[in-house]
Amino acid sequence: MKRPRLLILGCGDVGMRLLPLLRKRFRIFAVTSQPSRCAELRALGAVPLVADLDQPATLRRLAGLASYVVHLAPPPAEGVLDSRTRFLTAVLPGHARMVYVSTTGVYGDCGGALFDESRPVAPRNARALRRVDAERVLRGWARRAGAQLSILRVPGIYAGDRLPLKRLQAGTPALIEADDVYTNHIHADDLAAIIVKALFRGGHNRVYHAVDDSDMKMAAYFDAVADAFQLSRPPRLPRAELQQVVTPALLSFMSESRRLGNGRIKRELGVRLRYATVAQMLARR
After folding, report:
1. Which segments constitute the RCK N-terminal domain (predicted)?
2. d(CA 174, CA 233)
3. Is there a smaller number of Cβ atoms within 10 Å at the N or the C end of the chain?
């Protein structure tokens, strides 16, 4: 009972991977909107709290509850503002230490450039605009409350059970080399470990790229997964043809090219990646 309290918001796959890493150090409270998940959370050592980030009245019990917070909850699916994070900051305690898991999508299309955390954000779609809004709201809360905030910008998360196998089996095409985009990756287990590091070592209002060492284009990623599972590689199409056969949401992910440096998580947080590249993970499966 003397352990410090930690509040986890958005306890999905990454949050569940996080619980075993932190349950000996903290008394953990995990927020869920689904009462059916309470037993699962208890089994991993968390105290489940049923609350809905879209319903401010249900968040009152979180006020002053914990001095450490991991915010994994995504913004709403529509609009350009993150109302969930706005509701949350109204009840978060002052002088807390928070890690917020954002997205690399806040940078928009960078033409394949390699860059560090000093690059300005340039969101190109509503999904990324909501994340930029959340970061801005949390920075304002941290300044007003005297809280410690670290922001992790996270790319595509993968794991053994989080690979594009259904896409490959469906034969969804990828872009030809000339039109293809650079993508960034992080294994779910490595992301959980990075969150732990940031919780204890993260700088005040500091941004970190939670990405691995992979340097590959999107189609090369699909090819690597296909080869590892003995599936057919996806067909390649020029962008003009591809946009006629994939959904707008999928096309948006295939329209932004960037490469993010991860030196800061290694220098400042002391991160040592378990899966330095996607190829390493696939070779160990």
Report:
1. 7-62
2. 9
3. N
Count CA within 13 A, CB hemisphere, residue 147.
26
Residue 193 belongs to domain with CATH number? 3.40.50.720
Classify residue 141 as exposed, middle or buried by CB count within 10 Å of its CB (0-12, 13-18, 19+). Answer: buried
Helix, coil or strand: residue 237: strand
Range of the domain at 97: 5-158+184-213
> Could you read off the pLDDT of 156-206 as tens digits, one per residue?
999 999 999 999 999 999 999 999 999 999 999 999 999 999 999 999 999
Give the integer Cα–Cα distance in Å for 41 and 19: 9
In the chain, the amino acid numbered 46 is A
Which residue do the tokens 């410690």 mark?
A: 148
Number of CB atoms found within 10 A of residue 143's CB: 12
CA angle 272–277–280, rounded 5-degree value: 100
**Residue 38 Ramachandran class (φ > 0 left, ψ -120 to 50 alpha, else beta):** alpha
